[in-house]
Amino acid sequence: MEAVIFDLDGVLIDSEQVWDEVRQSFAAAHGGVWTSTATRDMQGMSTPEWAAYLVSDVGVRLPAAEVSAGVIAEMEKAYAEHLPVIPGAVDAVRAVASRFPVAIASSAPAVLIRVFLEVTGLPVPVAVSSEECDAGKPSPDVYLLAASRLEVAPEDCYAVEDSTNGLKAALAAGMTVLAVPNPHFPPAGEVLEQVRVLGSISELPDAVV
């Protein structure tokens, strides 16, 4: 194996609940009605995809571009108040980066990925948002783009994920997938059966030796 590619939300920062709260609040303020499947449906979607979903499926009464701008602005405010870094994540990335080229392949907007890297100071030379791709997770596009920018074949990369759609994306990219299951939104059992499951992000450095 020649590289390690990390998801961001749910793997390095405990942000899935923040996203959920911000989207629900924004939707309620603009005429939307939250559905029982909305949270899981949007996990892994790129920014244009989830903004369109909030309009078409949740009923937000704004253009998709205004939806994405509004939600991202609220996320920036939330991160400015508190960036919910997962315990052990920064040390794990530093340990792995001392032995492998590393990257982030995330559905988060590029602006929020930059906030995370600025706050933590982590040595991550390649950070890709699915905003740059034709489709978000479970499409493999963001992982394939990250591997390309690292100049490493996808089959020679580890991918570290937490959600069903993220795990599907990394598997579709042909990577060796390590799962750190999200405790708030556990991934599907049939997907976990296809990957190696870790108890926490702190186990990662030993897992990739």
From TrEMBL:
Annotated transmembrane regions: none
Pfam families assigned: Hydrolase
Source organism, top-level taxon: Bacteria
InterPro entries for this protein: HAD-like_sf, HAD-SF_hydro_IA, HAD_sf, PGP-like_dom2
UniProt xrefs under SUPFAM superfamilies: HAD-like
The protein's name in its UniProt record: Haloacid dehalogenase superfamily, subfamily IA, variant 3 with third motif having DD or ED
